[in-house]
Each structure stands twice: as C-alpha cells, then as structure tokens.
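DATA SHEET
Item: assembly model
Revision: 1
Owner: S.N.
Input lines:
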Amino acid sequence: MQIYLPIAEMSVNIFLVLALGGGIGLLSGLFGVGGGFMMTPLLIFIGVPPAVAVGTQANQIVASSVSGVLVHMRRGNVDMKMGAVLTIGGFVGSSAGVWLFSVLKRLGHIDVTVSFSYVVFLGIVGGFMLYESLPGVLNRNAPMPLTARGPGRHTWMHGLPFKMRFRRSKLYISALLPLGVGLVVGILSAIMGIGGGFIMVPAMIYLLGMPTQVVIGTSLLQTIFVAANTTLLQATFNQSVDVVLALLLLVVGVLGAQVGARLAGKFRGEQLRVMLAIMALAVALRLALDLVIPPQYLFSLRESGG
Amino acid sequence: MTARARTSRRRFTALAAAIFMLGATTARADDVPLVADLSSHLVAITTGFTGTSVLLFGATNGPGDIAIVIRGPVKDVDVRKKERFGAIWVNAKSVTLHDVPSYYRMASSRPLAEFVPDELLSRYQIGLNNIRLNVADNTKTPDVDAFRDALIHLKTDEGLYSQELGAVTLMSNRLFRTELYFPANVATGTYLVEIYLFRDGAVTSAEIVPFTISKIGVGADIYDFAHHYGLLYGLLGIALAIAAGYGASAAFRRT
C-alpha cells in the first residue's frame, strides 16, 4: 500500500515506513539514543530527499524520546539537574553548529564532511565502547569490572571550578564538564543532522563517569530538546518537516520505544554497550565503504539553490 | 456523487468530446488539419497518489505522421560529478543546467528518422537528444555534453524522461491516441502537450494543449501550511510528537 508524502513529494510503501519507525523506536528505548544516526541514512536510502529526512526524523525523535524518558523517569533513572546542564550546552552548541553547517555548505563538500564525521565518530565511539565492554560480556561470571570512576581517580577535571552535586548520578563535578559535553555534542549533532545520543551516551559514561542506567534516561531528556530545536529550525527555514511521514514513523516509533525501554531493564549495562557499539561500527563501516568504493554512476542531480 | 459515477461521467465526457471532434473534422475537413485533447486537464495528487495515466486523443484530416512532446515545469538543476580524491570519492565538478524540464516525454507514430528531418527535430526539441539544456556563459567545465547526457540518463532512471517511437496509434489515418504516464514523483505545475502533424518532412499543423498537475485535499493543505506558516507548523509538529510520546507511555503503563 502506497501513501503520498506532501512535503517529500513522493509516495512510499506504508508498511516499509512503519517497520522502519518501529525498529528505530525500539533501539531508541533500548539504548537511549535517538536513532537518528540510523534513521537519516535509511530514509535517504528509500528515496526521501536528504533535507526532508533530517527535518522529519528530528520531529519523530522528539516523540520517541518523550515516550522513552517517561518510562525511565518512573524508574528514577533520569538526572534532571544533569539533563538541564547538558541541554543548556546543547542549545548553544547546536546554534553554533547550524552556523558552521552553512559555512561548510558555502565552501562545498558538505556531503563528504557529513559522511566523514559519521565514519570518524561512529568508528571511534563504537570501537572504544566495544573494547571497554566486551571483556565483561564474554566473561559472564567475572566480577563487574571497575569502570573509570570512583574516588580513587583524580584528574585535571576535578580541579575545575563551579562544582555541582548531581545526586542521581552520584557525582560531584564541575558544571563546566557537562556543559562542555553538551556544547560539543550540540555542534556535532547540528552538522550531522542527528539528535546526538550516540555521542552523548559514551561521553556521559566515559567522560563524566555517570552510571549507565542513569545515562540512558538523562540522554533521552536532553535529546528531546535538541531534536525539538532542530525540528523548529528546519520547519521555519527549510520547510523540510513532513508531518505525514513523521506521524507514520512516530506512531510505531513510540510503541517501539516503550518495548525497548522495558527490554533495557533485562540487560546489563555492558551488554547494552556492546550492542550499541556493534551497531555504530556497522553504520560506520557501511558509510566508509560508500566513500571508498567507486560509485556505480559518477553523476548526481540537485536542484539549484536548494 | 460516488467515485464510480464520477468516473463514468468523465468517460462519457471524453467520449462525447471525441465524437464531437470527429464530427467537426469531417465537417470542416480542409480547415482543421489537426485537433487533439486530453481525457483530463487536471491531474490531482491526493494522499493515495501513485502515478496516473492521461489519454491524449485527436484526429487529423488525412494521412500524416504524429509526434507529441510533453514538457513539465522547468527548473535549474546542478549536475555533479564524483572524482577520486585520495582514497575517497568526492563531488568535484558541477554544472548548472538552466530551464530543465522536470518531465519530458516524446511519442511518435513511426520512427522519427522516417518522417522528420534532423533540423526540425532539434528546432521543436523532439526526442531526448534534442532537449535544449543551456549552461551559463561562464561555465568553465570542458565536457558539458557529458553532464547533459548524465541528466537525461538520471531523469530516465527516475521515470521522468521517456521517448517511445510508435507509441502513438493511428486508426484509418484519421484518429490517433496515446497514453501519457505520470509517476508518483512528478512535479506539480503546468504541463504543455505539443502535437505535431508531419507531411512530406514538414510540419503541416501543430497544437498545444496545456494541463495542470496539482496537489488536492489534505496533502495540499499541509504543503501550503508548511510553506506559509513554517514556525507554527514546526510547533504543531513538536506538540504532536510530545502528545504521541506521552500517549504511548500512558497507554503502556495501564496494560
């Protein structure tokens, strides 16, 4: 069954879109990532214009993040204070990122910059998480490995001013750290057209030292605001949010997120991290191959000034 | 009115028009060498739109060959070419082609070479190789023709460009008809159908029939709203998303 998308100006198979939305929603709830890093390439793959894919997936991610965050909130797995600080950084960062995006676009090669950042960041993040978490998963009976947090470690990070207590995260660190993480992730997410969860989650675990279970809910909270900001910017300046497509994606997406959030409770932290790492590496590998393999047809079309 | 009643009425109108025109041609056979019309002058893109066919039909006042050209609204298009840059493939060269028709179809009653001289083909832009694709005067790329060919290749792949020799059916050298197909990714706007009647290697008569493809119904309203009230549209989209997220969470909590 086909349905015509008024903004994308094309017709798509309704079941394909529903499967896509449900699948990505499941991942969203499970790993605390928005899923944009998979949704955007997949939408473009089925023929949706890239600008519409970015704008629409942002709108859909608002829905799945709200749905997911409510489940985590009831479990007490959301650090509101941390979320607020990250969001402030994220807003500043994403605004700077939108500006940087337009500069890169004027200089040309924005497509390759985007693909390249995907490969680099997904590769680094995925590789590191896999390296960190795999031993714990393979050796099930081994005691929980001591992660890089606790009173024993004292680095330059602990010398920074404006210390705040984040009770849920069991942390007493400088507010500048989450602010900086939010800022950097905001810039990257604006350039790469995603919510940024897949960079945010590892940054929170490894840089801030937050416990994995709290990280997912808190990351989702922050994702709501970044994605809402992107939706608004895209709708206002590019008219590239397709509500019909978003509606199809989010109806099944929110259900998937519910199932995912429930499933997340059944896994250990490092198991979730290994799964997320493998997916990130798979996407990075796919994009890297696209960059390296000689294209079948060298030419492509784009509407002028679009 | 039911859909079926509407369809049958439309069919009747088309039939009546055809009969009327046939009558007109026989009555004033020498005055009007060519008449043509479409089964529909408005293609409506609704939510269920997956492409559609329009029937072009007409009559001539005697033997001759027919060539038709349909062109969609024009736009400027960038054709980009990838080149190897170190280990990766990057969009390197780009050529902007001006006034590119978003849709093009050529259909003829016989292979063109048998009845049309080459200079007329290019003058009337009949056939994919004769579409005029202009570049800006300051274009420095040397192999512009490769970019033109690429545009035609890619548009053909999308189903938006086509040509078919023999797709116009002639009946007893008087009546002709051909089916025009428009895929789901067709652009909205005004389309022009040009019908040429050829005799002895020259255009004896020509006619232009315009028609419109436009969005109708909910889809059209959404499109207009998004383009006129972008900020409000975005806010509504976000509100919808939050409501859906909250709704799903609440629904799951109860079960």
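QC remark: DSSP finds ten helices and five strands in chain A.
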